[in-house]
């Protein structure tokens, strides 16, 4: 399977230009699956400690109306997260989109930080503690949305369920990129699965502090590639048989 990770601008104008370049890259590489950053289709709003219902609704609508943009990446399957109103609550929920089914909603973010630049419990509610993997053809995929990647019991559980690919859409700051890559490598090793991640990036001082750097990591933790501001898209052909074999090697086989 050919998978693509990316870094996309937080500023709407920069995002629009980057999206056109991403669409061209996807067509050229003939990607099968694309992972987007966390809540890609609206600027990062959780930088503010003050919840604003008008901004929240604008963010929801921008994602609801993103289908024409996603169609530019077809026939690739697209993974990401979006803000959503469900049962009188607000969630940051994972989605998978393709041309046949449109948006399909899955796991809503469970682990929510609340600190400078990332006031997430202020803006939306905690989802259910449900980390059920998703079957995509021959690929079994598990979502760990941003902060969730630090809770390695879920990587362990995904590995036991046979997950081939952990998808981590992010919105994380520039000065913590090395730390986040450690998390991605560790999640891959714990699960015996590939770990992929995409991140937003801010380009000016008035923006939220978001640092980019998407990654593709193989099941034993080796970094296969990173995105950069100069090369914001990365596509690699990955072999899920390696993830199947990894489940029977150290440390995955060790009993709980």
Output the keywords.
256 residues; alpha/beta; 12-stranded mixed sheet; two-stranded antiparallel ribbon; 7 helices
Description:
This protein is an alpha/beta fold and 256 residues long. It has a single domain, classed as Nitrilase/N-carbamoyl-D-aminoacid amidohydrolase. Helices cover 27% and strands 30% of the residues. It has helices at 12-29, 53-64, 67-71, 120-123, 152-160, 177-191, 240-246, and strands at 2-9, 33-35, 77-86, 89-98, 102-108, 114-115, 118-119, 134-136, 139-143, 165-170, 194-201, 215-217, 223-226, 233-237. The strands form 2 sheets. Strands 1, 2, 3, 4, 5, 8, 9, 10, 11, 12, 13 and 14 form a 12-stranded mixed sheet that branches. A hairpin with a 3-residue loop joins strand 4 and strand 5 (102-108). Helix 5 runs parallel beside helix 6 (177-191). It starts with a strand and ends in a 10-residue tail after the last helix.
């Amino acid at each position: 399977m050919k998978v693509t990770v990316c870094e996309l601008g937080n500023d709407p104008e920069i995002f629009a230009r980057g999206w056109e370049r991403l669409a061209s890259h996807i067509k050229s590489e003939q990607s099968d699956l694309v992972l987007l950053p966390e809540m890609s289709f609206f600027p990062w709003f959780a930088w503010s400690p003050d919840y604003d219902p008008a901004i929240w609704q604008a963010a929801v609508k921008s994602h609801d109306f993103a289908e024409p943009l996603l169609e530019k990446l077809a026939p690739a399957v697209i993974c990401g997260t979006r803000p959503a109103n469900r049962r009188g609550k607000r969630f940051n929920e994972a989605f998978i989109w393709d041309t046949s089914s449109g948006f399909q909603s899955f796991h809503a973010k469970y682990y929510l930080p609340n600190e400078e630049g990332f006031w997430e419990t202020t803006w939306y509610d905690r989802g259910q503690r449900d980390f059920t993997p998703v079957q995509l053809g021959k690929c079994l995929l598990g979502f760990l949305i941003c902060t969730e990647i630090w809770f390695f019991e879920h990587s362990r559980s995904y590995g036991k369920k046979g997950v081939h690919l952990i998808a981590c859409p992010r919105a994380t700051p520039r000065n913590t990129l090395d730390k986040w890559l450690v998390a991605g490598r560790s999640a891959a090793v714990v699960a015996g699965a590939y770990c992929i991640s995409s991140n937003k990036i801010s380009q000016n001082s008035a923006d939220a502090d978001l640092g980019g750097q998407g990654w593709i990591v193989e099941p034993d933790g080796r970094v296969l590639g990173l995105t950069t501001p100069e090369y914001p898209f990365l596509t690699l052909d990955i072999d899920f048989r390696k993830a199947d074999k990894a489940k029977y090697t150290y440390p995955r086989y060790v009993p709980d």
